[in-house]
Amino acid sequence: MFKNYLTIAVRTLWKNKLFTAINILGLAIGISASLVIYLLVNYHFTFDKFEKDNNRIYRVVSNFTFSGNTYRNSGVTSPMGPALKKELTGLDAVVPFRTWDDEIKVSVPVENGKDPVVFKKQKNFVFADEGFFNLIGYEWMAGSAKTATAAPYQTVLTESTAKLYFPKLKAAEIIGKEIYFNDTVRTTVTGIIKDIQANTDFSFKTFISRTTLESTSLKPQDWEEWDNTTSASQLLVKLSPGTSPATIEKGILNIYQKYHKAQEEDHSTTVYNLQPLSNIHFNEEYGGYNKPLANKPTLYSLLAVAAFLLLLGCINFINLTTAHAAQRAKEIGIRKTMGSSRRQLIFQFLSETLLLTLSATILSILLTPLILKAFTGFIPDDLKFNLTEQPGIILFLLALVAVVTLLSGFYPAIVLSGYKPVLVLKNAAYTNTGKTRTAWLRKSLTVSQFVIAQVFVMGAILVSKQISYSINKDQGFKKEAILYFNTNFYDTTQSHKYVLLNKIKAIPEVAMVSLCNNPPSSNSTWSSTMKYKDGKKEIETDVQQKYGDSNYIKLYGLKLLAGTNIQQSDTVTSFIINETYAHILGFHDPQKAIGKNIEWSNKQVPVCGVVSDFNQRSLHEPIRPLVIGSWGSTQRNISIALQPQNEYGTTWKTAIAKIEKAWKEVYPDQDFTYNFFDADIAKYYEAEQHIASLLLWATGLAVFISCLGLLGLVIYTTVQRTKEIGVRKVLGASILQIVTMISRDFILLVLLAFVIAAPLAWIGMYQWLQNFEFRTDISWWIFIIGGSAMVFVALLTLSFQTIRAAMMNPVKSLRTE
Asked: Where are the transmembrane segments (predicted)?
């Protein structure tokens, strides 16, 4: 029986090639979009699910409150980990480790006295011990967790890193080999572990024993201090069964208060929270490790986009199938006359839908690699699409085929199988059906399609507008024609950076040079607690810090509102504060803040100037209180303002070549890398740019599928009104009049969709813009452009069929048969 259904389905679909192609294309678009989004969402939601008892693993994070403002840090004080091991019960594991974020030069000695093999700019280093390997659950190829990091200067490598450093040796043969880090830290390889194949944020490649940090040369300044918190000092804990996170959080706070020496009149508060392992990949407030984080609302929005595109494909199929029903009416009548039951006909039509859906699914599988390649900037590098290695994809596609088949095929099957044989054999199947419930249902489905499409169009316009606003807004500093780079962090000779600075100043293509710690807007931020006493009360605030020479303000175009500029100094002698900090201190007139003292690091620092506010980071975040000072030893960033381009556009290229030459003269063994400041500002909004690309892609698909649905409805209508069109032409109606008559109802549907879509789009836009502290307006012209664009596209779609129907020979239109 099923073979018979399938044979008839193949013949029917082959007979109507254009109808079949349009249906397959519409469904394939929806399915391929759903498949790509499934891959992306599944990738992110499967992070760190492989660890044993992962629901009991937490990261300890710190929260500080100053003057009503909360500041979050993913790290803890360095002594916290050892203290918890000794004093806190209810924990199965306490795992402190320390990250090493800087790029590192790795040197591997070679036998026979040859020069070592050097690997520059290596990343993903961490100082860890036995507990880290046991908690995450690494598989050992050589060595063991118990001994591999027990002593100082021991190193464990992942399999991929071991093959990079020792390509000709097996894992066991690498044990005992030496590795140098930055030519100063000499370690011995004591273990090789397999790379984690599952999705994880713990993508570290090289592990140095944590006890190495206790050596004289590497010991951090905050190693034994309870006052300093750094994100480099990480702490994972595993709760014992039955232990509540609240109990552990209280215990951690008690230990902190036991050892932390609170200052008198300390107006800040510190709270420790347990962040679930499953939350690390999605929480941007605390950050992750080496992998880009995901945003759950964005992922849920993508799922909604996939559902909408799939729904559009199904609606499109329904419209086209019912529009094509007139050509199958006699077939249905004959089948019923010959004894076919309605149930058999339903199975027949569902078989056709299943065949179409399977064909669309195969096409979507072929399209998916191309789509993933097109969105390489948004798709994670390690996201895979392999049907043989990912059985979950096959299960997803099978479920999708079943759902789409039922959604798309059930209603048309019910409608087609319900025709009465007597009527269809008399060509009366459509008599008096123009205003029936099914006609209104088709129109409702078309309106729904255009509501979704118009919301996408308006959303895409708004997202592009906000990105343009963010990049082009005056953020309080100059950003064009400025590049910067950092000098060698491990260079102990301070004079080298000044030698390089003077060499760059002498380059004619360079307008100005400044030595600082980082640009005005940067992901790298320094902050510290500062106090101000006005005689009546004390104001304590967490304040961001920037350090530079006297050219810093001039080069970046910062506006000095009052006072004088800073002067280059090896120690901090004065501060320039921003408007926000001045207002917090109670000075609404900038001039009145000049000369006041701020207590910082147990000394009084006078305010020498007030600078206009500027955005220290992206427009997502508010402007924070900030000071600018001069502290020579911390300033290893060289910022360079270039001269304007000449008529040939070669000024900047020449300048960069000369700067690189100067760099090589000072640091001959170091590669020269630099960044343009305006490019860094644009990177703040990469996520939004990716969203804009996806939304533009989804919008194009939604509009295309909606137009296919509209085409289906206009085909249905023109078939119904064929004789009416013929009569009107005989009575003198022009082609324009007939086209207008047919199109009017459809344009009204699009306008109705606009009325529904506009408020829905406004709500979505408003909610999305709340992610930005500084945001653009929801302009009225967004809705006008969105609505007008859809009307224009609808008219183009309608003209294809309406003009064809209007130009038909009336003699053919008025034939009985």
From this structure: 21-41, 299-320, 345-372, 392-416, 445-463, 694-719, 746-766, 778-798
